[in-house]
Each structure stands twice: as structure tokens, then as C-alpha cells.
Amino acid sequence: MNKLLPTSSAGSLPKPVWLAEPETLWSPWKLHGDALIDGKQDALRVALHEQQVAGTDIVSDGEQTRQHFVTTFIEHLNGVDFNNRKTVKIRDRYDASVPCVVGPVSRSKPVFVADAEFLRQQTTQPIKWALPGPMTMVDTLYDEHYQSREKLAWEFAKILNQEAKELEAAGVDIIQFDEPAFNVFFDEVNDWGIACLEKAIEGLKCETAVHICYGYGIKANTDWKKTLGTQWRQYEEVFPKLQTSNIDIISLECHNSHVPIELLALIRGKKVMVGAIDVATHSIETPEEVASTLRAALKYVDADKLYPCTNCGMAPLPRSVARAKLSALSAGAEIVRKELSAT
Ligand SMILES: [Zn+2]
């Protein structure tokens, strides 16, 4: 990136009301067949336009073509039976009905590559594409076949690597793996989680990111956050190993979270997508609030490695709120850019 402090969002943006029920996760589509294909592409165009109007520098599809950041990818794979469902505890936090792994997992065709090509045709700006991380995929399934979280994650990492290579060829500049599970299963992250992530990015020449957050602003997550105490030190468990990994960018939560900002020192040298927008509240940050989060991060991250971002995806928010938050992010980044160029 030539521009200092390039802004982006962590991933999902709200969908238009004609495509899916707003402010809902796993919201069913309102269109079917060819109308749904057209509708998803139109929504992607709108999401891109909204980012451009808001001044977002690194744009994405806003995840308009997927129902959910993990499930939609898994739906396209062999070996997972969506009619055979079991209730499991996701991220040690809340019960969910999930599909079963019943045989070897594989990808018979690309999942998001056509969508990425479509986005690439619409803009010359840098584009970021999000995929679920291997550990978070494993944590969203019941496994009858491998009966080993590590083995299943390794198989997913190989599949993700195939998809990532094709996304890169489609012109994606940054491929991001969403790993909220990294904030929960520390021993597994250090034993095999980061190794699986490195398998997923093997051979890639584009930039790679891992997004580790405290989740969407849904009740299960806000209830969980209340149990975490006054200092959220989860990042401390996984940052040292991530610092020595091949991942280029770490995307994390800052604004309004109880993450001690000095934990950023543990990933010194990495590029950091700093969450300066809280996705768990409808109140809009002021540009000055965004700027003060970025200034705090600048004590631990070199200016040319700091990427202002949102704490997490904004799919469950009203569209007007998401738009205003993206604009605040751009305005806050501009304040700090001016300060940096004046010194
Ligand atoms: Zn997130």
C-alpha cells in the first residue's frame, strides 16, 4: 500500500433488505434461482459502492454472497452432511445445531472464486477476501469421521490453500482467514492451529491476514465478554507464536474492548489491522475517537504497518449504522495521516 493508514472493514457488511432479513445471522435468502444469483451480485455492487463513498481504501465484497462466514464455505465441500445435524458448543460458548463430517473432506470446485473475479472487475482498488480459518471451521462442525480436531483442521487447511491460490489468481490482494477460535483454544492454537494456518497460506504471493476477535455484537458474545474481567489478555496466549509465523497481517479488536493496547508489542514487525470501530454498539464513533485509538496503537505499530479497521464484521448492524461507522473510520484515519505528515 502506498497510502499511509489504509482503511478496511473486518469483513461482512449488512445485506439489503430485499436480499435477506436484516440484522440477523444465518438469515435465509429472500430470492431463489437466477434471481438470487443476480441479487447477490447487485448487493455486492452496492456494498462496494458504500465502501467507496465512505472512503474505504481496501475494499471487500462485504460477504454479500454468503449466509455465514463459516457455514457457506463448508456447504460447498464434500464429506459434510448438512441433513445430519448435531448440537455442539461453539467456541466453548453457545450451543448451535451444526452439520456432521461423515467422510473425507474435499473441494470439488471453487467456492468464492467467481465472486472474487466479479469484485475484481468492479474496481481497481486493492481487494481483501475473507475465508474461515481451519480451526474455526472445525469448531463449527460435529466430526464423526476423523475424530481428531487437528486432523480435520489439516484437511481443511489443504482445501483452503487450493481456494486461496485461485483467489490470488483472480486478483485478490489480501486473503484473510477468520479465526475467532484462536481467542479460545490457546493450547490447540499453539500446538497445531497456527501450523494449519501456515499450511493454508503455503505458496501464496499475495498478502495474508488472520482476523482474531471477540465476535459479532450478538447476545452470546456480549454475555461471554462480561465474564472476561477488566483486562482481556487472550491475545497474549497466541501472539508470540503468530509473531514468528509467516502470516503478514494480524487483524484484532481495540476500540471499546478491554484488550490492553500494550499486547500489540507482542506482534512487533507484523502489519496490524487495528479495530477502531466497535461492532457491538449502534452508536457511531467520532473521527476523534477513531484517531485516539490509532494514536494509541502507533506506540506499538510502525505507521507504515498500521491498517485502521473495524473490530469485526458488521452484518448484524443496520445499514445506516454500518455506513456511518465506515465513514468515521476514514475520517479518523485522515486526522492521524495529517498528524503523521506534519511531523
Ligand atoms: Zn470478527
Features:
three-stranded mixed beta sheet; 343 residues; six-stranded parallel beta sheet; TIM Barrel; 10 helices; binds zinc ion; globular; alpha/beta
Number of strands: 9
Bound molecules: zinc ion
Tell me the series of helices and strands, N- to C-terminal: HHEEHEHEHEHEHHEEHEH
Count of DSSP helices?
A: 10
Task: Flag low-confidence runs.
Answer: none
Query: Domains counted in the coordinates: how many?
Result: 1
The major sheet is characterized as: 6 strands, parallel
How far apart are the first and last residues' alpha carbons, in Å?
Answer: 21 Å
Q: CATH first level: which class?
A: Alpha Beta
State Rg: 19 Å
- The outline comes out as globular
Sequence-ordered SSE layout with sheet pairings:
Layout: H1 33-54, H2 71-75, E1 77-90, E2 94-107, H3 113-122, E3 128-132, H4 134-138, E4 142-143, H5 149-169, E5 174-178, H6 186-200, E6 207-212, H7 219-226, H8 235-243, E7 249-253, E8 271-275, H9 287-298, E9 306-309, H10 319-342
Parallel strand pairs: 2-4, 3-5, 5-6, 6-7, 7-8, 8-9
Antiparallel strand pairs: 1-2
Helix pairs in contact: 1-3, 1-10, 5-6, 6-8, 9-10
The structure holds zinc ion.
Give an overview in words.
It is globular and about 60 Å long. The strands form 2 sheets. The chain has a 6-stranded parallel β-sheet with strand order 3-5-6-7-8-9. The chain contains 10 helices and 9 strands. It starts with 32 loop residues before the first helix and ends with a helix. 45% of the residues are buried. With 343 residues, the protein is of the alpha/beta class. Helix 9 links the parallel strand 8 and strand 9 (306-309). Zinc ion binds at residues 10, 180, 211, 213, 312-313.
